[in-house]
Every structure is written in structure tokens, then in C-alpha cells.
Amino acid sequence: MNNMHTILSMIMLACCALGIWSPMREGLVRNLSQWGPMALMLVAMADTTVGPGIVPGVVWGLLLLLTSPLPLMLLPKDRRGGMEIHRSLSMVSMFALLVTTLPSPSSSSVHPTHGHSGLGGANPVLAVALAASVIAYSIFLAVRTLRRNGRGHRRHASASLEAISSAGALGAMVLMAV
User: How much is the pTM?
Assistant: First the structure.
């Protein structure tokens, strides 16, 4: 089981890192509101799954919840689209999965560097349902973006890759939680 956790953690982290690449390509400073919250999400994932657990999971959850609207709020309305909504929803899903899988105070069998205890938190079914919905939206967005704009356009291909990478990261998190 430990090997499965390690494999899923690496998939989750790789997918999240890949997803950050698309908004970073569009400008480190100009697009900070897009890739910054996602970078925070990557650090939270690393710290709660394979890292030393420096920051408590509930604090990571609060930070993710507070930064989830930034991709929408800090971008002018004329530049907003499906990817900004997708980024915000991905962060809310990560928050929900994280806080619903935090170890309960009576659980002593949780590995100290891993914040997930197998759906031991409140409303885990809702968190998984939210994640499944965002995964479905990610796939829909990726297919729609490629279909509408053609496969040859690099910007749209990277947006599709970002959406699919989010689906992969959330899928790995769901599998780690169950």
C-alpha cells in the first residue's frame, strides 16, 4: 500500500507542476494571479503527502480556500474564460479533499508526514463528488479547447494539457483518499 501511495503522490505532484506551466508561459509577473495560487496548491500537496508536514493540513486548507477566487478576481473581466474558472474550481476541490481527509484527533495510525487518513473527515462523499465534477469539467474543457481551436495552436494545446493535468492530480488525490 505504501508503494501505491508513493506512486499516486508522484502522479499528483507531477500533474500539478505540469498544470502550472501553462499560465507561467503567459508571463511570470503578468499572470501571477493565475499560476501563484496553483503553485501554493503544489506546495500544499507536497507538504501534506510526501513532505515533512511543516504546515498543518487545516492551515493549508484555509490558504487554498482563501486563494481559490484569485484567478477570477485579479484578472480583468475581458480576459476571463473557462481556464480561470477551472483553476478556481480545482483549488476548491483540493481544499475539500484535503480537509475531509485530515486525520481525526483519535487516529494514531496515520503516518506523520501524510495528512490523509482515508476519508476520515467530515462530508468526504461531497468532496469526492466535487472532485469528480471538476475532473469531468477538466476533460470537457480540454476537449472543447482542442476541438474549437485545432491541435496546431500551442496556446490552446497548453490550456488543454493544463486541464487534463488537473484531472490527473485530482484523480490521484481521490484514489489516495479512498
Answer: 0.80
Tell me the residue type at 143.
V
Cα–Cα distance, 152 to 59 (Å, whole number): 42
CA distances from 22 to 32, 35, 95 (A): 12, 8, 22
Q: Write out the three cell numbers for 23.
A: 499560465
What's the CA gap between 153 and 8, in Å, rounded?
31
Q: Where are the domains of the chain?
A: 2-177
Is the CB of residue 92 less than 8 Å from the CB of residue 133? no
What are the tens digits of pLDDT across the range 37-89?
Answer: 999 999 999 998 887 889 998 899 999 999 999 988 888 787 777 888 999 99
**CB-based contact 128:177 (threshold 8 Å):** yes
What does the angle CA 22 – CA 28 – CA 29 come to, to the nearest 5 degrees?
135
Q: Where are the beta strands (DSSP E) in 25-155?
A: none
d(CA 131, CA 149): 27
Give the whole-angstrom CA distance, residue 23 versus residue 86. 12
Can you tell me which residue has the cell 475532473? 135
pLDDT (0 to 100) of residue 115:
46
